[in-house]
Write a structure and sequence with these properties.
The chain has helices spanning 17-30, 39-45, 51-62, 64-68, 72-91, 100-107, 122-133, 158-167, 181-189, 236-250; strands at 4-7, 114-117, 143-145, 174-178, 194-196, 212-213. By secondary structure, it is an alpha/beta fold.
Length: 251
Amino acid sequence: MLKALVFDVDGTLADTEEAHRAAFNAAFTDAGLAWHWSVPTYARLLDVAGGRERIRHFWQAADPAAARAPGADAVVDMLHARKTRHYAHLAGQVALRPGIRRLVREAHPARLPLAIASTTTPDNIDALLRAPFGRNWRALFAAVCDAGTTAVKKPAPDVYLAALAVLGLPGADCLAFEDSANGLRAACAAGIPALVTPTAWTRGQDFSSALLCLDHLGDPADPVDLPGSARRWVDLAVLRRRHAARHEELT
């Protein structure tokens, strides 16, 4: 039985990556660096989970000696802090993806707990969700697990396992929502079936292990093709049927 929904954030709740890319580049400019992450460069860097980790990875490739020098970690922290401040100004302008707001609103009358399992920072999540859901957005979620929750990031399952621990549920009783292959691997490793809604940044990755892969969750005014169903958007009834069918396949 489906007992909880667990959401990734970046790319899943909203297509935030262009805002993140702009924020990184603004931070580099602030610091007087000649770095600039183009769309192709940033797309490659998305394979590295975590903002600090992306900065460090890029720096090590561009100038290995400087990236290993004393004080390098402080530079990475400074750049990431500046990036986070820029992102906070941009995130409020990023719309939720189709179906997200509706599904969140449907879950509460149905007494279906919601959780977040993300490798982004608490500040980034707050910057994104306070606009559509208000300052008390955390009250909508039974668990909020983020980059500060676990040391190891996706594709490791740690952040999902942390969310399951708070929910007090096994993975098989939950459904994850992801947009990337790394996220899907993390959910599956935690024993959680996952629905994937890729973005332009992740489309073409391997989602063969997903419960379902759709362009987005859909809304009555923004329908989506839903294989095997006359319904044109994903609601709780659709999720329960798909989840139950997967459970039957595995038992």
